[in-house]
Design brief:
The chain is α/β, with parallel strands linked by helices. The protein has a domain at 3-155 and 182-207: NAD(P)-binding Rossmann-like Domain (Rossmann fold, 3-Layer(aba) Sandwich). Helix content is 40%, strand content 16%. The chain has nine helices and twelve strands. It has helices at 11-23, 40-50, 71-92, 124-137, 158-165, 185-197, 214-225, 254-260, 267-277; strands at 3-6, 27-30, 54-57, 95-101, 143-147, 150-151, 172-175, 179-180, 183-184, 202-205, 212-213, 231-234. Helix 3 (71-92) links the parallel strand 3 (54-57) and strand 4 (95-101). It is globular and about 55 Å long.
């Protein structure tokens, strides 16, 4: 099946492209410099020309704080983009895979969210992603996989940022009241391909198993990286960020694991493996 990977310069899109290339599968990869998914005419023209059987949409506006003042940009990519892809999916009969986020939840539950829980985003980014989920699910057989705290090769993830901060003198303050599930891109690729093989559709939670605070994750990252650095617990409120964030947005992956008959590695194992492979 011919595939098109969108958002290919991001850490998730790049991981899909690397896997398809490694396996010798028929695919093309494009980022916003080649195809802007917020442009409906461009989307239709590109897809009519390429004629994929599968589109994996990793394109996203993920600047959580900037989205508060750049609402139009956030909605254009995160909501209108999936709308255009879903429209094209219906017309051109390809499978659409789209990725959501734990930020569609407000954290009030205080326990892992399941697919049955009602979203209530606290910020523009989360609201735009929720709208995008709805649009993608309108595609025939559309598959939406919600992710959290994604990490992989690149600079747009907590591991990369923490390593940079750790080079500065003095202790680091890391939030201890923000909890979710760090999730590695290689596991996302593995499980997505399994889901496609089983013909799954609808929305599912795809995370590494377990949950932790930012502080606990930071401690593991520095330990596995062999970096000695004092970490101080802090509150999210201490950082005075423009966008509100849920305090507890961990999602349960049990439904997806049960459907596919597999176990997704823990966040600890995924983090340790990534750091070992990317010292």
């Amino acid at each position: 099946m011919r595939a098109l990977i969108l958002g290919s310069k991001g850490q998730l899109g790049g991981a899909f492209a690397d896997r398809f290339k490694k396996n010798g599968w028929d695919y093309a990869a494009a980022d916003v410099d080649v195809l802007d998914i917020s442009d409906r005419a461009a989307v239709m023209a590109a897809l009519m020309n390429y004629k994929p059987g599968l589109v994996i949409n990793c394109a996203a506006y993920n600047l959580v704080d900037k989205a508060e003042t750049e609402q139009a940009k956030a909605y254009a990519v995160n909501a209108e983009g999936p709308r255009h892809l879903a429209f094209a999916s219906e017309k051109l009969e390809f499978k659409l895979v789209h990725f959501g986020t734990d930020y569609v939840f407000d954290g009030a539950k205080g326990a892992p969210y399941t697919e049955a829980d009602s979203p209530a985003p606290l910020n523009v980014y989360g609201a735009s992603k929720l709208k995008g989920e709805d649009c993608a699910l309108a595609a025939p057989g559309g598959l939406v996989l919600r992710l959290s705290w994604v990490f992989g090769r690149g600079s747009q993830n907590f591991i990369h940022k923490l390593r940079g901060w750790a080079q500065n003198p003095g202790p680091l303050k890391i939030s201890s009241d923000e909890v979710s599930a760090p999730t590695g891109v290689e596991d996302i690729v593995d499980v997505t391909l399994s889901a496609l093989g089983r013909g799954l559709f609808g929305h599912w939670h795809l995370t590494n198993t377990g949950a932790c605070s930012r502080l606990d994750w930071a401690k593991l990252i520095l330990k596995e990286s062999g970096v000695a650095k004092e970490l101080l617990p802090a509150s999210m409120a201490d950082f005075n960020l423009p966008a509100r964030r849920p305090g507890y947005s961990a999602m349960a992956n049990a439904a997806l694991c049960g459907e596919l008959g597999l176990k997704i590695p823990s966040w600890q194992d995924a983090t340790a493996k990534f750091i070992k492979e990317n010292p």
